[in-house]
Design a protein that fits this description.
By secondary structure, this protein is α/β, with parallel strands linked by helices. The protein contains nine helices and twelve strands. Helices cover 32% and strands 21% of the residues. Helix 3 crosses helix 4.
């Protein structure tokens, strides 16, 4: 796959479709070989074609799989650019890299929350408890993993529950398999055009009072901030987990991460 003398330039990136392709492009431009792990075939299509780019699709189930991959492909650096709430894979990466002494670098987007009177930080998905929930319309923009349990909780609080999920097989299956009415489910990608935010039309159509999402720093979070700022709605943001604070090296700018990798190679 790579000859021995170039193995020092093997970098493994684990990421979604926002940051991973941008980091990979910069490394490929300076002759690094990049291994990019994604969950789905569609996510892999966000990366450009390049003979030095290797896309790996599917979940990594445990620490041993990670160690085997690093050793087999002679990985010099591992970049964790996974979702801020992807705590299981981050924990496994941390443990694996420490065990075999491989540098692990965290890339995490900044989350700059505008201070307004209708934005609130909460500790967990079921922590909206200082407002009247009865017969209010709450939109869950939290992904599909905890959707059913969270929806059930707020239904028991007598709220009307709606959701927006991504157009993936897993998300759609979990959404329609949840307790949420089919008519209260929307399937769409986060809008990337600031002038035309579909989520706003969704909120207007459903008459949403509250939006619940995660503090990810993603397009999705930024969209909800734009929509709710200056409106009568309230935005509840679940704080990021603290597990990733244990990393030795953390970056929120692409070039800072790239510069660290370059310096560490010499």
């Amino acid at each position: 796959m790579q000859n021995q003398e170039n193995c020092y330039k093997n970098v493994w990136i684990l990421s979604g479709t926002s940051d991973g392709p941008k980091i990979a492009d910069r490394l490929l431009a300076i002759n690094y070989s990049v291994f990019a792990s994604v969950l789905t075939y569609k996510a892999g299509q966000a990366y450009i074609e390049n003979p030095k780019l290797h896309i790996i699709t599917g979940k990594l189930n445990n620490k041993d799989q990670i160690i085997n991959f690093i050793n087999k492909n002679k990985i010099k650096f591992v970049v964790d650019a996974t979702h801020p709430f992807a705590v299981i894979i981050s924990k496994n990466l941390n443990n694996a890299c420490k065990e075999i002494n491989t540098p692990l670098l965290l890339f995490e987007r900044k989350s700059l929350i505008n201070k307004t009177n209708n934005f609130f930080h909460i500790d967990n998905l079921k922590d909206i408890n200082n407002v009247d929930l009865e017969n209010k319309n709450i939109l869950l923009a939290i992904g599909s993993r905890s959707l059913s349990d969270t929806a059930n909780y707020y239904m028991n609080c007598k709220a009307n529950v709606f959701t927006r999920v991504l157009p993936t097989y897993e998300s759609i299956t979990k959404a329609f398999g949840s307790c949420i009415k089919n008519s209260n489910i929307a399937i769409l990608e986060p809008s990337k055009n600031n002038e035309r935010i579909l989520e706003k039309k969704l909120c207007d159509f459903w008459g949403i009072d509250y939006v619940l999402c995660r503090e990810s720093g993603s397009y999705s979070q930024k969209n909800w901030e734009r929509i709710i700022s200056g409106s009568n709605m309230k935005l509840f943001l679940v704080k990021r987990p603290k597990i990733k604070n244990d990393y030795s090296y953390s970056f929120n700018q692409y070039q800072d991460l790239i510069n660290h990798i370059i310096k560490s190679n010499y």
